[in-house]
Amino acid sequence: MAKCTEKRPGGTCSDGQKAQIVCHECLAAEKRMKRLGKDGLCDFDGVNMLDPDEKANMLVQAHSLSGQPLAALITTCVSQCHQKVNERRFKLHEDFGNENKIRDFFKADPDTRDAILALQPPDTIVCKHTKQILYPMPTYTRSNENIDNVAEKRERTCDVEEKIKAKKAAKLAQAIVDGKAAAEATEATALESASKGKGKRETKSDTPKPLGEPRQAQIGKQIQKLDEKQLWLQSKLLEGSAPTIKSSIPTIWVDNGEAMVEALMELSRLGNRLLTDKVATKSEMQNFNTAKSQIDQATTLGERFEGIFEDLAAKTGTGELTA
Q1: Residue 259 has what pLDDT?
Q2: Is beta strand 7-9 parallel, antiparallel or unpaired with respect to 21-23?
Q3: How many whole angstroms separate alpha carbon 262 and alpha carbon 256?
Q4: What is the domain partition of the chain in residue ranges?
Q5: 296-323: per-residue pLDDT in tens?
Q6: Does residue 265 contact residue 231 with C-beta atoms inside 8 Å?
Q7: How far is the C-alpha of 207 from the C-alpha of 214, rounded, in Å?
């Protein structure tokens, strides 16, 4: 561990023990820590709960730190400490045997025997040579080990990063509010200036424009893709609603899938209306041009459903014992 070089009379030395000398750099670092603690950016009270070696090591590291890096160091040192613990461990060993071997091995324990024989794949395997179903025969051994655990020193920890993020978020929210107010003021000024003009003119973006034949052909092809993808995604949702599969599908996937189906149908209806009218505004075309991204998102979600289906199919299959 690093040692402090500059020392002055009085106080507490860097190893946490009362003494007649104190490291000036450690004292300055401790003052910076106290200021952070008063601002609520670190758990300074927890520093006194560190053992002498931990506190000395932390103070040496804090010589050149301040602000957020120093607060992060305090949080790390206070929230975790290394301690040796004597832990009793139980190790599981599993051999496998056929039904006759299980019945013979557990003949004095019918409850355990029946529980093992009731197991189903993937807890059981099939020997690729004898084609017999093999069941696990669990046994346990006990050992005492000294292990180096990272244990929580205190139940209460100070999450410095979250507090800093919260302050930044509050400032950002205020900036957004101020910016929104300024934008509204600018908009009000613009509207007032426009109201002084003679009449109101319709913007070009709101004026419907004729759709040429090439554009109509493109819209027709996109409508076909939308309809095909919508039906395909609906089939995945229907398959995922089966009782044996439903519990394995995240609810948010189902909600997103239903929303995507509705979005694809809405875009298809918009495209058909444009082909019927043969005219479209700029905003309508911008809306319809999102069809490709909607199709891509639907494809990604549907492939996630297919991945779940494949995993479940693999789990319900019969495993084989390999060398």
Answers
A1: 92
A2: antiparallel
A3: 10
A4: 7-81, 85-152, 208-317
A5: 999 999 898 888 888 888 877 644 333 3
A6: no
A7: 20
The answer to whether the beta carbons of residues 150 and 79 sit under 8 Å apart is no
- Tell me the residue type at 63: H
In this structure, are residues 37 and 45 in contact, taking their beta carbons and an 8 Å threshold? yes
User: Helix H segments across the chain?
Assistant: 24-38, 52-61, 67-79, 99-105, 110-117, 160-195, 213-240, 243-246, 251-277, 282-288, 291-316
3-state SS record for 272-304: HHHHHHCEECHHHHHHHCCHHHHHHHHHHHHHH
Do 100 and 296 contact (CB within 8 A), yes or no? no
Both tokens assigned to 51: 């053992």
HEC string of 190-241 equals HHHHHHCCCCCCCCHHHCCEECCHHHHHHHHHHHHHHHHHHHHHHHHHHHHC
- pTM for the model stands at 0.37
